[in-house]
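your task:
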Amino acid sequence: MGEVYFIRHGQASYGAANYDKLSALGHQQSEWLGNHLADTVGEFDHIVSGDLTRHRETLAGILKSVNHAQATEDARLNEMSYFVMERAYAEATGESMPGNVRGLERHFTRVMQAWETGKIASAPESYEVFQNRILDAMQEVSSHGKRVLIISSGGPVGVVMRHVLGLDLSATTEIILGTYNASITRFTVLDDGLRLMQYNGVSHLERPDRQHALTFL
């Protein structure tokens, strides 16, 4: 059997002018994750990441501890263009983004529902295209006898979980919203597809002195 370790990037810069870079905590989370993987897994046969800055910076932190000669990039593993879609949704509905966390979560769910049903006409890509590119990239790197590390984002984690577990969109959005930064979701490669073995693993962040590093945004 093969294994796929699917990583969500470390904390990015939510609220800053450029979201697509790790915060200082995001860099630390990535290094702690690299230490954990080196101690518990060892080497990987293949490492692939999306090509967003937060993916590259997370990988750089991991590679301070994980020994690997070369990693590749695949833009199909990039996150959805959520902020672009959110602005288009706001223009179409007049519904602005709330200022509190729970309101943001409900708003995210409504935007996702509108996107999946084709109601955001100016979306950079359809939900189907987003889903298919993630699954195509996963299929290409998942193989028997190989241990693969993927660095991506919360949306792609949700897409893969939806595919493997047969979830609806409501459950998928809950997974996306609940996925920790620098977390591990692990799959075993079987003859007929993937089997979920672990979701949202953050044992490297659960020590008493690292509780502040359990972040979603």
